[in-house]
User: Fold this.
Amino acid sequence: MKNKKQTVAMLLAGGQGSRLYALTKLRAKPAVSFGGKYRIIDFPLSNCIHSGIDTVGVLTQYEPLELNNYIGNGAPWDMDTMSGGALVLPPYVSGKTGEWYSGTANAIYQNISFIDQYDPDFVIVLSGDHIYKMNYNWMIESHRQMGADATIAVMPVPLREASRFGIMTTDADGFITEFEEKPENPQSNLASMGVYCFSWNVLKKYLIDDAEDPESENDFGNNIIPNMLNNEQKLFAYEFKGYWKDVGTIRSLWEANMELLGNKPKLNLDDEPWKIYTRNPNEPPQYIAASSEIDNSIICEGCYIYGTVINSVLSSGVIVEAGAIVKDSVIMPNTYIGENAVVEMTIADEACWIGEGAKIGASGDLDKIALLGKQATICAGEVIAAGQEVATGETYSTAKEDETCGVNASVVGDEAFSAFAKKGATE
Assistant:
């Protein structure tokens, strides 16, 4: 007997995220930290549960271990249910055959049997790398009222960024008349948000036909949507009015974090009716020393601040030693910043070690954000230029005789807290 659901969500979370460089070297893009205490995937998962959608297939592929462990049984998002929940769906072998997901449409096609067991009226297809709060029910209701076969959530974007998105033209009633995926010379700035609502009986047919086409790229933007448009299916554009950010580049990820700051942030996370749920790291309270100076910043649990933090977002377990300055930066969990170090316009991944007196990045150019990969080690006194990247696990030292800096990057977190403990014992 089928466990009937009106709507099933399919969350595409397997992308490589190459434009995030070192941040996605060892993890899928949706698992990247955001806003101090969240991961990117927290946003679509939270949107689903607030929208009453309790069955979400999470399609993973690239570097899935961290993301799979993070999702677990879906409990942080209240999705640990017997009749649905958040279910991780990696590629699999059936009989003697099996293959990687070859595109976004192919990923859904390979999981038709998963969807069919819930016999849904609608399927929502979501991207796992966007920051936004959205009630999917409003989109579904528009889809139903307009008698659409597919509905695409859209919003205007700056024309200079339009080539990153699927761009469309609509008629006076909001139905899509033209669609082009990532055009080199966009003629419009009405962009797809990567949020689709389909009538399942229609989408299923197109997925099967697409899988049988040897010339297809098996992609929604390049194949499914154009084919539906060519066949005169009814495609409706649902215009979204709220905050939305594609954080698929270093610049956009940095900007989205900065937009959480200020008296009136562009994205309000202090929203009781629409909380963004996440896994709690269960860290102790933050410690702000008398010597510290903090201005317009987010400081999460487990941080120890002795220096200066300005216009920055610090995740849990970050240590900023005396005399150090962190400005216009995003610092991910368990990173250590030594005495008198200066960190400006930088994204530092988890468990980095920044030595005493080191200088990272420089203010003023949005296209030159310094990037430190996970467990990167910057030796004392070293200089990392604006826009420079230090790879995951790399030790950066110009002094060849001291390439390790005396720090084991694999235990940076323990080293950092050990340093703090020794400091506290002498104060």
